[in-house]
Write a structure and sequence with these properties.
The termini are close together. The chain is globular and about 55 Å long. The chain is an alpha+beta fold and about 250 residues long. Strands 2, 3, 4, 6, 7, 9 and 10 form a 7-stranded antiparallel sheet that branches. The protein has a 4-stranded antiparallel sheet with strand order 5-1-11-8, with no helix packed on it. The chain has a single domain (about 20-230), classed as Immunoglobulin-like. The chain has helices at about 1-15, 60-65, 70-80, 235-254, and strands spanning about 20-25, 35, 40-45, 80-90, 100-105, 115-120, 125-130, 150-155, 160, 190-195, 220-230.
């Protein structure tokens, strides 16, 4: 009898949504790169953010050039591969600071099994970070068991959307002097590894005192840390806590 009650309680607990917290921390040094508010999405492993050597989608272009997440969110929801996405943060995330958000996910839903993210490197013409492999980060397995995610994005992993020329001219470079979105020189290229900022000179990114340590191609440069952790749900713990006294009561009656 006690065993049956425990099994029922555990089954009931499993039916609750699983709260998970996503945290993004900018690991760049002071005077280093910022990152824009981070788009994140949970999906079935079929939402392909980008492919190396292939032209970026309009949604990815909007993030890589201007840090705008709405177009990518529309692509995500329209794909039918996921039902939960969000933007972490309200403004560029400075070195040494973090943003986080709590998501209530159904652990048994195929649409919540995998995680993807994207964010613009600030300042830049079209540099960004994100995972091209849609199955790179599995959050829940087929049984609904949660797997913690914790990884560091290195500077060597920064990508170039291939949509805008990397001229670093302030009027063409987002968050460096550009006054309106999508005003850089179109490149018509494809997604690839970013070659790095231009050598420091007056007027360009590394030549600015504010971004003197923004060379993400430097040895060991860390851009960001992304963590996904499960948060204990109060209702679940309450059910579990009831199991012991109920079991004891049944035993006493025996």
């Amino acid at each position: 009898m006690t065993k049956t009650i425990l099994v029922c309680l555990l089954a009931a607990a499993a039916s609750f949504a699983a709260p998970v917290r996503v945290t993004v921390t900018n690991l760049a040094p002071m005077g280093g790169t910022f990152i824009t508010p981070v788009w994140v999405g949970f999906h079935n492993g079929m939402f392909d953010l980008y492919d190396m050597g292939v032209a970026a989608t309009p949604g990815l272009e909007a993030i890589a050039e201007d840090g705008a997440t709405a177009p990518l969110s529309m692509e995500f929801m329209g794909s039918g591969n996921g039902s939960t996405d969000a933007t972490l943060g309200m403004m560029p995330i400075a070195p040494g600071t973090s943003v986080s958000m709590l998501f209530n996910l159904d652990p048994m839903s195929l649409l919540n099994r995998y995680f993807s993210y994207a964010s613009m490197i600030v300042p830049s013409n079209d540099a960004f970070i994100g995972n091209g492999n849609p199955m790179a980060f599995q959050v829940f397995n087929a049984m609904g068991v949660f797997t913690a995610v914790d990884f560091i994005v290195m500077g060597s992993m920064v990508l170039d959307a291939g949509t805008e020329v990397n001229d670093e001219i302030p009027m063409n470079t987002a968050f460096f002097g550009q006054m309106a979105p999508n005003t850089g020189t179109p490149e018509g290229g494809v997604v690839g590894i970013h070659p790095g900022f231009l050598p420091a000179m007056p007027g360009n990114i590394l030549g600015s005192m504010m971004f003197a340590n923004a060379d993400f191609k430097a040895m060991g440069y860390q851009v960001a840390r992304i963590q996904i952790e499960q948060v204990p749900e109060p209702a679940t713990w309450a059910l579990m806590a009831l199991a012991l006294p109920v079991g004891l009561l049944v035993r006493r009656k025996r």
